[in-house]
Amino acid sequence: MNLKPWIAVLVAGVAGAASAQDSNTLSIDGEPMVTEVAAPAHVENLDTIYSGWRFRSAETQALETDDFDNPAFVFVDQGIDLFDKVDGTENKACSSCHENVEDFAGLRTQLPRVQDGELVTMENLINDCRTERMGAEPWKWSKGPMTAMTALIGLQSRGMPMNVTIDGEAAPFWEQGKELYYTRVGQLDMSCSNCHEDNYGVMIRADHLSQGQINGFPTYRLKNAKLNSIHGRFKGCMKNIRATPFAEGGDEFKALELYLASRGEGLSVETPSVRN
Amino acid sequence: MKYVLGGAFAVAMTASAAFAEEIKPTAVSFVDGTVEQSLTGQAGDPAEGRKVFANRKQGNCLACHTNADLAEESFHGEVGPPMDGVADRWNEAELRGIVTNSKMMFEGTIMPAFYVDKGYERPLEDFAGKSILTAQQVEDVVAYLLTLKEQ
Prior knowledge:
A: 276 residues; Cytochrome Bc1 Complex, Chain D, domain 2; three-stranded mixed β-sheet; two-stranded antiparallel sheet; B: mainly alpha
């Protein structure tokens, strides 16, 4: 709960005013999802963390409860086709090496992670396969083929708890991400925390602010009718506060992604989720 | 060509005449978060201020504040306190201070400073070195807020 004194008054007056996360429970095709859990110790200023699903309207929520209704599945199907599609100089498809996409169960929950001293995201792993093993062109970070593939691979972890590593080699990246999360930027001079930690549950003009969790990415947005990457969302939020966004796939956004993933520890992976 | 140049010159003249009275963002003087002196030396226009308050590309104050006087606009935000009766709670100098740079009144607030043109990091290029509102728009908003009385 995150109630402001002035909103408590409004809630009393207007029944059903959107003033906090709702109490709905999410099951997808009958499988229950954890959308609310005690905040992990490293999230200092929150007691409870909530999936973004809890802040959406009943209509938007309903679209995620059934894969047949979830508009993101058109793109998951594209991902299935791409998985089998031969591309590049080595004459290989993803399925040439990865017999069964279901073997990727659990991967989404662990990313980003450190490999050979570098922080890598799912997009990095996919493009490493394309360039190094298939001899194919890398996919653009937030374009159709990449988001279709991250949706398909992420879906294999659906229902599993987010669980990234933040200590050891990951610690400096996590610290960098945390620093960025709390740094004010842009002409409006705001930090991620100003909206998603201090004011979640509150309306900002027509938008109901969530905690900005990333357990549902890539996300199908009704607003643009496509899958949206994590870094694409970061970029959008930065532009809204009139800040020059960091580069998609760059060190800053990867570090921020790790930090945000850790703030969602214990929430179910909901990939691919539906948002407005 | 001569005509066009002359036109541009005339515009530049008028603009600088208007600026003569105007206090630059960096020159605004605050006392305990309040700003006594008008930023333009000209009275604010409450009707204009009402528009600036609602306009998403200008004040967009409605993003964070509900305001019964703007009932015709949908989607009032709840991040800050309602604006109803705000003039009963704050005087002109206080309101000018809050709109100019609310951080001087409310430490660490999320509310943007509407009349500062530096000190923020990584602005989008189009906004770099600029304040969100002009001095006159601030005066207009303050004049509008002063009309929001309940008593």
